Amino acid sequence: MLHTGPIYMEDNVSLRPRHPRTIRRAAKSSDVAENVRDWLSAALARDDIYYFSVYDGEALVGQIFLHDIDWGSGESLVGYHLLQAHDRGKGIGTKALKLLRDFVAEQGRFRELIIITSSDNLASQRIAQKCGFLYAGPPREDPNGILFRWKVQKS
Predict the structure, then answer these.
(1) Are residues 96 and 15 in contact, defined by beta-carbon separation less than 8 angstroms?
(2) What Cα–Cα distance (Å) separates residue 135 from each residue in 2, 10, 29, 143?
(3) Is 146 helix (H, G, I), strand (E, B) or coil?
(4) Angle of helix 92-107 relative to helix 122-130, nearest 10 degrees?
(5) Strand, helix or coil at 70?
(6) In principle, which of 6, 13, 50, 73 could form an S-S bond with 66, CB 3.0–4.6 Å?
(7) pLDDT at 155 exceeding the cut of 70
(8) Which residue has the higher pLDDT, 142 or 135?
(9) Four-point Cα dihedral 62, 66, 67, 69, nearest 10
(10) pLDDT tens digit string along 76-134?
(11) Which of 28, 39, 35 is nearest to 66 (CA)?
């Protein structure tokens, strides 16, 4: 499902609702284009995904979402992508993940968030760590990956 509520903002970065057509038409680097398309389609079809568009000022720059949400246990995985390489390394991903954490804490329905990243994706690992996610070892689904956990602090 796509976020339809308020805008969440920190400095120039915001999480917003956006029409799927806008996301589909946005320019994307080849390394994320397929992931962006697939996750947007999944968010439109599934109720265990909650999807936000990420903005830097007024420019659509990415996506961040909860996925494989287990409403019973209050656990969810987190995914994020910045659409173009020139937007990476500027702190946008870190701010977007902090805003997502704020949203999750405000909801009061979640207990824990989980990020799984490849062992060579150092940028994603740094984002997780900067946002208070703790290293928890390899995930059982991918022994070559790295799993991070964040216990939700109620707001």
Answers:
(1) yes
(2) 29, 25, 28, 14
(3) strand
(4) 50
(5) strand
(6) 50
(7) no
(8) 135
(9) -170
(10) 999 999 999 999 999 999 999 999 999 999 988 999 999 999 999 999 999 999 999 99
(11) 39
